[in-house]
C-alpha cells in the first residue's frame, strides 16, 4: 500500500505563505479596532449634541436661557423627571455643579462609558476639573495627554447674547 502525503518542502512553503498573509493582515485588523472606537465616539458626540438641543429647547420654553449658572442654585429644567442645572440654557459642564456628571449620565444614557467633569484645553488635553464633561471608555481616566480616546462637551458661555456661542462638542482619538 502506497501512502501519499505532503513533502517537507511543500509544508514549509505553505507555512511561509501563511506567515506572510498574517503579517500583512494583522495591522489592518488592529486599525479596524481603533476605527470602531472612534466611530463609537461619533455616536456619543451626536448624543451630546442632541442633549444640548433638547435641554436648550426646554430652557427656551421655561424662559431661563439667559440665566448664568449660579452654583447648584441656578436654573434647571426637568429631563426624565430629574432636574438638570443650566448655564445660559445649556446643561452645566462645570465643577460648580456637583451633579454635572450625573446629569450628563442621564442625558446620554450610556452604560459602557464613564462620565466625568474635567478641564479640556484647546489641544484636547485634560488638565483639571472645571469646564467640560469627558466621556471615556475603560477604567483609566484621561489625564494630561494620556488615555486620549474620549468625547467631550464644553459650555464656555459667559453671556446669553450669541445663540450657541461657547458650546463645543468634540472628540480626541489619539490613543484609540
Report on the structure:
This protein has one domain. About 35% of the residues lie in helices and about 25% in strands. The chain has 2 helices and 7 strands; from the N terminus they run αβββαββββ. The chain is elongated, with a radius of gyration of 24 Å. The model has no long low-confidence stretch (mean pLDDT about 80).
Feature tags:
176 residues; alpha+beta; four-stranded antiparallel sheet; three-stranded antiparallel sheet; 24% strand; elongated; transmembrane helix; transmembrane; N_methyl_site
What is the rounded distance between the termini?
59 Å
Mean pLDDT: 80
Total of helices: 2
Helicity, in percent? 25-40%
Q: What is the global morphology?
A: elongated
Q: Strands across the major sheet, in which order?
A: 4-5-6-7
Rg result: 24 Å
Count of the domains: 1
Percent of sequence in beta strands: 15-25%
Pick out the low-confidence regions.
Answer: none
Pfam families: N_methyl
Keywords: Membrane, Transmembrane, Transmembrane helix
Organism: Bowmanella yangjiangensis
InterPro entries: N_methyl_site (IPR012902), Pilin-like (IPR045584)
What's the gist of this structure?
The protein is α+β, with helices and mostly antiparallel strands and 176 residues long. The protein is built from 2 helices and 7 strands. It has one domain.
Amino acid at each position: 500500500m502506497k501512502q501519499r502525503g505532503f513533502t517537507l518542502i511543500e509544508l514549509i512553503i505553505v507555512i511561509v505563505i501563511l506567515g506572510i498573509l498574517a503579517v500583512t493582515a494583522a495591522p489592518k485588523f488592529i486599525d479596524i479596532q481603533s476605527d470602531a472606537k472612534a466611530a463609537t465616539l461619533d455616536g456619543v458626540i451626536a448624543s451630546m449634541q442632541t442633549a444640548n438641543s433638547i435641554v436648550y429647547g426646554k430652557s427656551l420654553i421655561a424662559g431661563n436661557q439667559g440665566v448664568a449658572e449660579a452654583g447648584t442654585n441656578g436654573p434647571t429644567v426637568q429631563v426624565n423627571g430629574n432636574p438638570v442645572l443650566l448655564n445660559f440654557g445649556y446643561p452645566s459642564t462645570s465643577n460648580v455643579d456637583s451633579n454635572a456628571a450625573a446629569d450628563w449620565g442621564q442625558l446620554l444614557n450610556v452604560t459602557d462609558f464613564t462620565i466625568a467633569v474635567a478641564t479640556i484645553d484647546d489641544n484636547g488635553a485634560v488638565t483639571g476639573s472645571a469646564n467640560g464633561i469627558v466621556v471615556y471608555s475603560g477604567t483609566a481616566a484621561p489625564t494630561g495627554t494620556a488615555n486620549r480616546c474620549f468625547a467631550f462637551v464644553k459650555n464656555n458661555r459667559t453671556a446669553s447674547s450669541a445663540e450657541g456661542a461657547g458650546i463645543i462638542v468634540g472628540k480626541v482619538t489619539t490613543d484609540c
